[in-house]
Amino acid sequence: MPRAAGTITEQIHLRARKPSTTAQNIDRDDRTGAVTAVDPYHLDPKDVLEPPTTFAGKLKYLGPGLVISAAVIGSGELITTTALGAKAGFVLLWLVIISTAVKVWVQLELAQWTILAGKPALEGYGHVGPRLIGRAGWINLLWILMDFAKVLQRGGIIGGAVAALSIMVPVFGEPLSTPSLVFWTVVSLAVVIALLVTNRYSIVEKFSVGAVIIFTVSTVGLAISLPFTDFAYTSADVMSGLTFAVPAGTLGFAVAMFGITGVGADEMTTYTYWCLEKGYARYTGPNDGTAERARRARGWISVMRTDVLVSWIVSTVCTMSFYVIGAAILHPQNLVPEGNDMITTLSSMYSSTMGEAGHWIFLIGAFAVLFSTFIASTASVPRLWTNTVSILGVFDWENMRTRTRIIRVLTVIFPIIWALSYLIIQSPVIMVQIGGVASGIFLVAVVIAVWYLRSREVPAEFKSNHFFTVMLVFASLAIGLLGIYTVFKTFGIEIGA
What is the pLDDT of residues 156-165, one digit of tens each? Predict the structure, then answer.
């Protein structure tokens, strides 16, 4: 690592020697007091930074992947995966493993393009013709449609967090009563908006990492301890879940789970924005065609892959733990999470094995992970919509002042819309499943975009790894089959039971 700059003035010229921790780095000049914001979406030769070469060094630059883990654990793992385990038992455990492992290869390819191009995913989607409005192509417009469907899913996440609060502290009425739910919804909105209106990436990362650690430890601990309780499972149960069988009545639910668990299409897209704000592309620098730039790119792509690997391990372990817990505890009791009783039903997983203490441990942990997902969504979606508006030709994305202003306005507006959708529907499980199906359709479009960008805009030296290519092909085929099923299902054509 290079030495630290000695003076504030030196720091202005060498600011890239320190890693970015916010969406807007701030440098101050002693002599003038002027403040200069560093645009995380602009590549400047002065911002280049040599990538770490050791695993320990790479760990210091992790973060975007853990933000994504926090986003997916709340929606997929806690709600849909546990409900699927409760409904199907151990038999679909194989799908949990595949759903978390398959899509990560598309995420890796898309993030590599972002680092090389210095642009977020939605900009790349616009390169896939035909263009329809401004710089927007058909994939951009499909993203808009998908995100409207995701309103329900995000409302379901808020609902889960609010329900946990209402059960723990049922102010203004009984637990889960309308006055209590409304009160905690308003409080949650106020807290999240106050935290994120400053538009700082570091806040999102810190909350996400903390929540992931808390709930991963508690969930994995419970799953491991089950064999020593009345809800013990055996190795035979686990093996029965690796037979690739799909029981009657669970196919639609399984498709929704595949669309949500692991990194979904929206998380893949969002991940590219967090990679930019973390600094991977800025540290690589603009493409000047030099060997030095290519070497830096390979180094920061390696850091990104480490980031993805860590987040994939976290997501896989959590997903399998939630599924096993649902299959071992809820399935034998015929308990399937539904409506506002979802949190109460899920909490029985803990109270059944740990008594009243387990009930409270679950509620606190569930609130932590759902609230972190709420934070991650509130931070990411305004960025994506602001970029979409610029692609449609409303304003120039390079204008950081306008961009920041729009993001802040949407940071206030969007969570209010999501919360209202929950208060009206009040069925988190169904809301999350609808969002999962929408994600499954959009995921196919993302795969198409990845192959287009890979063939047209990624230099040959960055796609020479045959193993990565084979895994990308496998992932693309699996996602394509998911898309075909989802389209058929949408038009009422049944495939299987």
Answer: 788 888 888 9
